[in-house]
Amino acid sequence: MTQAQDLEAILTPPVVPVLTIAETTDAVALARALAEGGLTVLEITLRTTAALQAIRDIAAAVPDAVVGAGTIRTPEDAEAAIAAGAHFLVSPGITPRIMEAAQRWRVPFLPGVATASEAMALADFGYAFLKFFPAEQSGGIAALKAWAPPLYDIRFCPTGGINAANAADYLALPNVVCVGGSWVAPANMVAEKDWSGITKLAETAAVLR
């Protein structure tokens, strides 16, 4: 399968929870709660010291979840995430080092863009699916509508400022394959270990499209 086919197969739920996990002991329960609600594709951001262990634990204990790593900023980040069991990688932006290293990665890669020029440059390298980040701050729905005619062969996963109030509007756009967001796993609910409440939020998000 091609990179685009691999990503298309992975990015099937309408919402990809973007999770910053501070305590490894929360990882498996959180992943199970989201997967039970229908959100089976999870992005664990590499923003905490617990992130790589969280990926390992979820990959081993939650077979219904497809766990990926976000906030990939260097090739070393990517290699560590792949070794931990990440099934896909997501970056907030793109650099020459990442572009060169990505050709060797054995898992699909969703690079981040904020402009049409960045999207065109990545399309030249064969990337048909891109993360649009930070979406709301970079023009949001209006930008995606404007990009749709000239960038007709690219589909986006907007992330950044997406929430329960605007997710459906993004998902209604033909060039949006899914959205990423953290509202389905609020920090206060994770701290309270309200897994049933998070499952309910996931169930609502899973039927947005």
User: What's the helical proportion of residues?
Assistant: 40-55%
Q: What is the mean predicted local confidence, pLDDT?
A: 97
Oligomer: single chain
CATH class: Alpha Beta
Please outline the major beta sheet: 4 strands, parallel
Along the chain, the helix and strand elements come as: HEHEHEHEHEEHEHEHEHH
- Kindly name the structural category: alpha/beta
Q: In the residues, how many domains can be counted?
A: 1
As residue ranges, the low-confidence spans are none
Give the CA-based shape: globular
CATH homology group: Aldolase class I
Beta-strand content: 15-25%
CATH architecture type: Alpha-Beta Barrel
What is the topology, as strand order, of the major beta sheet?
A: 3-2-1-9
- What is the name of the CATH topology? TIM Barrel
Query: Number of helix segments?
Result: 10
Task: Explain how this protein is built.
The structure is a single chain. With 209 residues, this protein is of the alpha/beta class. It has one domain (3-204): Aldolase class I (TIM Barrel), CATH 3.20.20.70. 42% of the residues lie in helices and 15% in strands. It has helices spanning 3-10, 24-36, 51-61, 75-84, 96-102, 116-124, 140-147, 167-171, 187-191, 195-206, and strands at residues 15-19, 41-45, 66-70, 89-90, 109-110, 112-113, 129-132, 155-158, 179-181. It has a 4-stranded parallel β-sheet. The protein is globular, with a radius of gyration of 16 Å. The mean pLDDT is 97.
